[in-house]
Amino acid sequence: MTIEERPLAAGDAVTRRPLSLNEEVWCALDQGDVLGVFGLRKIVASGWRLRGPLDVPTMRLALADVVARHEALRTVIVRDPEEPHVRVHAAGSAELDVVDLPAPADEAGRDRRAHEFLNAIDDAGRCDPARVPLLQATLGRFDDEDAVLVLVTHHAVSDAWSIHLIMRDFAISYAKRRGLPAPELPRARQYGEYAGWQRQSCQGPLADEAREYWRTRLAGGKFLTLPTDRPRQPDSPPVYSVYRFVFDEELVSATTALARSVHSSPFMVLYACFNLFLHNRTGARDIVAPIFTSGRTEPEFEQTVGPLFNLLPIRTDLSGCETFADLVRRTRTALLEAYSYELPFSEIAAVADPELMHESMTDVNGAATGFESFQYPQELEAGMIGDVHYAGLHRRLISSDDTSEILDGNLWDFALDPSGDMVGAVKFNGLDFDQATIVAMIDEYRELLRVSVNAPDSPLARP
């Protein structure tokens, strides 16, 4: 049976399954339909430039194929106080909104308009986690063969890695529905299978060893917070902003060169500098700060769409680090140990001291700051599938003062760009911080990094 003939429905009945450990965390943080993790603005948005024949009815069918392929996009978390659970709905149609965009004559103008379009959807996007399918698509057309496709999912059923899988699967399905050669889709395990594997993986001697590592590693530690510009308002809807910036090619080259010389990754060097930044800002030497990982420790689930992302509390003691090279080595050790003992954050929190998160959750004058390097599969960075060229809009440089929300606190995000420089973003609650404060933080961090990577054996840079 060809893809054109294959029925879309995955089944008529709604099925029920237990929560994954990640979904349990979401339910534990539930603050209702407006505030918190189930709010309409807890979305993941990403965009691609499409050049080639664009057949809107066939695009809608390809999106429906993706919804049928990935049960997470048909999943609703039922927040029953007595027995929270998941309901997976049958496959159905998918919506695609089409907007005609003004078409600047020059390519630079179109590229900027494409990014403005993505930003506008990210800023205004709303996704109800109780309504399926949890995939929204908007096509902004410059003309019949040049457009921007923006995909939006709710974070309760997706993550940054997942949305790239969704786009790749759409591109392949679109080509095949039009009778064009395209790669075969790899087997995709469902998120429900991941939920079962995740629970099973947290049993047994290896999991017990990992718990003991985290119990010992985090004993007496607590997440470090940065002072806010004004007292936090936990009962008010947040107003998240994003500040975007670029680190130049010279700084990136020096960072990667130092990483190679000390057998580290660029992320390890960036995170070491983040530790130094936190030390200089707070005076703390014993630093616990969260990083985010893809959570895809099992290769079987690399093709799975769902909220697999994970948080790891990284503890780094700066005592005895005389130079930045010392600090990079110390940070590298802390990160490699954490990766090797990775458990779902709920399992880590269960064995850590209650003080680990107490201050970050109750301090009205401080906010925790997460750190990550943007992670996604590289299969659809840019290239032809069928007769359409797809290019990700990853080089996002337009800041916004009211955009989609994150769980809480601040999040620093870095991504090496194919051009050789590095694009970064800080997402923060504008009720807690002024943008000028965030800009000053990044300027300070940039200068710390520049001084440190160019003289790694000199004494640690101080304010």
TrEMBL record:
Family matches, as SUPFAM superfamilies: CoA-dependent acyltransferases
Signal peptide: none
Single Gene Ontology BP annotation: amino acid activation for nonribosomal peptide biosynthetic process
GO molecular function terms listed in the Swiss-Prot or TrEMBL record: 2,3-dihydroxybenzoate-serine ligase activity; phosphopantetheine binding
Chain ranges of the Condensation domain: 49-461
Cellular component GO terms held in the UniProt record: cytosol; enterobactin synthetase complex
Pfam families: Condensation
Name of the protein described by the UniProt record: Condensation domain-containing protein
Taxon lineage: Bacteria, Bacillati, Actinomycetota, Actinomycetes, Pseudonocardiales
